[in-house]
Here is the input.
Amino acid sequence: TVGAVARDAQGRLAAATSTGGRTAKMAGRIGDTPVIGAGTWADETVAVSATGHGESFVRGALAHEISARMRLAGQSLADAAEAVVMQELGALAGTGGIIAVDRNGTIVTPFNCEGMYRAWAVDDAPPQVAIYHEE
Amino acid sequence: MSFSIAIHGGAGTILRSEIQPEEEARIRAGLAHALEQGRAVLRAGGAALDAVQAAVMALEDDPCFNAGRGAVFNDAGFVELEAAAMDGATRAAGTVTGLRRVRNPVCAAREVMRRTPHVTLGFEAAERFAEACGLPLEDAAYFHTDKRWAALQQELARIAAGGDASQASEQVKHG
Here is the structure.
């Protein structure tokens, strides 16, 4: 699965995700990517794109859950994303991660498996490209 | 106001012990390229929605990643592609599922958002819609990579030997 989230210079947020799904998935299976709120979400608070065990993201509506925690519980993006990926995703027996950006331009990329291919940049600062946790 | 962008190219198939240096270099280059495609849109004053579409298109075009031409195969031996796009300012959203021939599924998702009153289109109807929108289509060979085909054979053999289809190894579990 691949995805992107962005905040533009006008403060607008957007998310997009694309996937081939899971190797040897049953023909006709629909994963979390096209289920709005599961693997992809954007509102005026946060934009989220997910990768990982799709059924877990669907069962937890996890992309939307990050927004809900921020809007309704006043959590920061970092706290909301950490809770969703490290607690809720695991509780659903899922592995994977998310990328997200909030209305302030803050970026987070948490994941609960060995690595996640990811990259990010703010304005014209040098791009960051990473795979493993320590990067 | 500043702009920000982040991308991902998947998570579940990564095992540090199994990624060769040359492959890792290609992956990192692909990520950097996709990030720049999106950042160029933002740098020019473009919309976040256009930026994420540009970044995802670059990732779909790169066989290193599980989307578009690097997509994995289903149990019947063909790709079924899915994509989504969502605009936070308006909550407009478009998604597609079950595509077999559309080169860039994220563009089909964007067209669902732009041209229809619906959120999701799937399978043959979605493909006909994408074709009517003038989106580039490809034959099955475009989406074939030896690495993904080998992963399918490995996983089918594991299941045939009595393995649980829901307990795939990390190498093939998800993209």
Notes: The first strand of chain A starts at residue 2 and ends at 7. Chain A has three helices and eight strands. Chain A touches chain B through 76 residues (CB under 8 Å).
